[in-house]
Amino acid sequence: MSPSRDRSVLGTISIILLFLTAYILLGETSSLDLTIKSYSNIYAITIFTFNIIILFGWLAFGTVVGMPLAVLSIIISIWAVLHSGYYRYSTFTLSFFITIFMARYFLRLKNRREQSFSLKLEKIDEEMNILSNERDKRKVEIRAIEEKLVRYSTLKDVSESLSTVLSLDMINNLIVEKASNTIAKAGRTLLFIVNVEKQELMLSASKDGSQIREKKGDYFDHWVLRHRQSLFIEDAEKDFRFPAAEIENSKRVFRSLISVPLMSENRVIGILRMDNPMEVNYTQDDLRLLDIISDLAAVAVQNAFLYSRTQELAIRDDLTGLVVRRYFMERFKEDIKRAARKKRALSLLILDIDNFKNYNDRYGHAAGDLVLKHMAREISSMVREGDIIARYGGEEMALLLFGMNKKEAALEAEAIRKRIEKGSMMLRRQKMPLTVSIGLSSYPEDAGMEEELIKIADERLYKAKKEGRNRVCSK
Questions:
Q1: Residue 66, class by beta-carbon neighbours within 10 Å (0-12 exposed, 13-18 middle, 19+ buried)?
Q2: What pLDDT score does 243 carry?
């Protein structure tokens, strides 16, 4: 039982015994015809019962109620003894003091028990508070671990996504998108790729980067590039590692920043950066996660570089650097469709080096290779960006001019012819004259299919050679 329930039970028993004993005493003492001796046992039992009443009352109600209950019991007991004429004061007094002693002893025992119980309750409450705090702490830790698991589980998706794409532009955009979604913090996400030839940063992809002023990176990007290590800034205004002027300039754009290098074979190939105008927007865990993403991104970017290089080698001639005939024909078909769709003109030039066999016969094949390289450089330097130049076969080269009609293409062909004629080259310390013959055909004026345009341009090239070489034939 609980202490409160014990007290109510004891109090109830005490009151019942009090009334029961009073009833017995009053009933017995009213029978005058019996001898006093016959009541001796009844009185002894009654006094003992009163002692129990006092004890129970003290235990149940404490001193405040137990004392009046004891006084009431004594009055009833004395009245009964005096009324009956049976005087055993010594027995009564001894019994009363024993009862008082027992009541005080049990009362102290009860108080000690209650104090002990109270201390145990306080200890239990304290332990419960500790356990509750520990539980809340564990909940926070579990929630943090769950968030980490969710974050790190997305790395599998990042890895799979990056491994399925080989286009460098698509890879760059995918890196920015996956980094932004994985970190899931507001702010800009920027990806800079290192230009190997110029050894400078070039912005390749961004998200929420409408305020980008430095397309080649700012002081902090170059710091990461120079030191080849990650950078973590909680609050730029309180970071004293950098010059005050750079911090002042950065305050308009960001306050907190995380930035990591993309490393490949111990060299930096790019910088992945996230920043935000608010301070303390990122954590060390965000930086670690971005660092993992950068490792995956570095592999993907390097693979894209290698793939691009492989593709370039597959479509370009080793000697001249011009595209090969197979790729040229694929682009020719696509440009014919594009010209028809956009209702634009398209012209084809086929060039042939005049008397090329004489160079090989007189100076050897190495000299012929030098002539081809020289021709490729000269023609490439004259055409527009987007025009396609191919080594069509042997000493023949083909040039596809999108958006040029026959008249414009004839002028371009004549300019090329004159440039080649004036730009003679040196072979074995001798100045060697170079000339070319050019056949020209145009879409849609001459034909509507690439095979027909090639046939017409070939026929006009043959006509130019037959008429004396070093000329352009467009009719």
A1: buried
A2: 84
Nearest CA among 260, 294, 253 for reference residue 276: 253
The identity of residue 203, as a single letter, is L
DSSP run (H or E) holding 174: helix 168-183
Going by their DSSP bridges, the two strands 388-393 and 396-402 should be labelled as: antiparallel
pLDDT at 146 (0 to 100): 73
- Print the domain residue range for 112: 3-124
Burial 144-179 (b: 16+ CB within 10 A, else e): eeeeeeebeebbeebbebbeebeebeebbbbbbebb
Cβ atoms of 185 and 286 within 8 Å: the answer is yes
Would you state the pLDDT for residue 17? 63
* 10 and 86 belong to one structural domain: yes
Domain count, the chain: 3
Per-residue pLDDT at 431: 77
Cα(240)–Cα(236) distance, rounded to whole angstroms? 8
Assess if residue 155 is contained within a domain.
Answer: no
279's tokens: 């301070």
Query: 295 and 406 share a domain?
Result: no
Q: Report how far apart, in Å, the C-alpha atoms of 124 and of each of 2, 114, 127, 129, 248 are.
A: 16, 15, 5, 8, 57
CA 384 to chain centre: 44
> Is 189 found in the same domain as 96?
no
**Does one domain contain both 392 and 469?**
yes
- How many residues in total does the chain contain? 475
pLDDT value at position 33?
43
d(CA 411, CA 440): 11
pLDDT beneath 70, residues of the chain: 1-67, 69-107, 109-110, 148-156, 209-213, 428
Write phi, then psi, for 474 (nearest 5 degrees). -120, 5
Q: Which long-range contacts (CB under 8 A, 24 or more apart) does 130-136 make?
A: none
CA distance 318 to 298: 29
Shared domain for 175 and 259, answered yes or no, is yes
Helix pair 284-315, 89-163: axis angle to 10 deg = 20
pTM (two decimals):
0.52
